[in-house]
Amino acid sequence: MALSGVGNDRGEMRILENLDELRTDLADYIAELSEVAVKERGVFAIALSGGSLIGLMGKLCEAPYNKTVDWGKWYIFWADERVVAKSHSDSNYKLAKDGFLSKVPIVPGHVHSINDSVSAEEAADEYTFVIRQLVKTRMVSVSDISDCPKFDLILLGMGPDGHVASLFPNHAVLDEQDEWVTFITDSPKPPPERITFTLPVINSASNVAIVVTGESKAEAVHLAIDNIGPASPSLPARSVQPTKGKLVWFLDKPAASKLDGLQFSE
Ligand SMILES: O=C1O[C@H](COP(=O)(O)O)[C@@H](O)[C@H](O)[C@H]1O
Description:
Layout (H helix, E strand, L loop, with lengths): L2 E3 L6 E5 L2 H23 L2 E5 L4 H4 L8 H4 L5 E5 L1 E3 L9 H8 L20 H17 L4 E2 L6 E2 L2 E4 L24 E4 L9 E4 L1 H4 L4 E6 L5 H8 L20 E7 H4 L10
Parallel strand pairs: 2-12, 3-4, 3-8, 8-11, 11-12
Antiparallel strand pairs: 1-2, 5-10, 6-7, 9-10
Bound molecules: the ligand O=C1O[C@H](COP(=O)(O)O)[C@@H](O)[C@H](O)[C@H]1O.
The ligand O=C1O[C@H](COP(=O)(O)O)[C@@H](O)[C@H](O)[C@H]1O binds next to loops.
């Protein structure tokens, strides 16, 4: 059974009893947003992350979703990517391809991954260019309050240090306000070279979901969500605050175990 609530201005909290329930709730949520976007805009522009997220999206490859979702209308992007070959085990593209994209009928031409044969800086610039072209044709919507793309959904994981996408604590990349996609060459978590959506792009999305499981992330969840007074401004997950969009947290009970009391409704 799920517990859900809106405890403060940190978005909607969905705390699931176990991983199976989390997988089902996440699949329902993504399928519903896809249906709404396809009805309203004719397409669904979704940005994935790497890590544990892809496994948690697994139910989308099963019935009923594999038949009911309008996969032909999906446009796929990555909120962050490691700058390694697409065949490398560290590649977020490979993870998604093996665990998700190869199992559903997504149009190959709608999958927009980075160029893996150039430097991190060039890969970020080229990825920005790709997104710009798709904003021009409105495959990706545009924010009415910034010049940023407005993705229908950005899916994020979170590390035990509170990082989201490849936005790490105390890193200058958190201050980037001008670029849509930027790069780092000193990631504290290997591999060091990565590209990442910036906070302005993440916070311009129509919907952002942060999916977190496991006790090792409970402290970061607490710091990212609870009203803890002068919170560390450098906890990246806390800076995810969609300006006009909706933020939803998907948590299992161990990840939620250090949250201050919320007003839950069942
Ligand atoms: O390095 C990364 O880590 C985060 C979190 O991964 P997780 O396995 O702890 O869920 C992930 O969201 C990001 O895309 C990835 O590049």
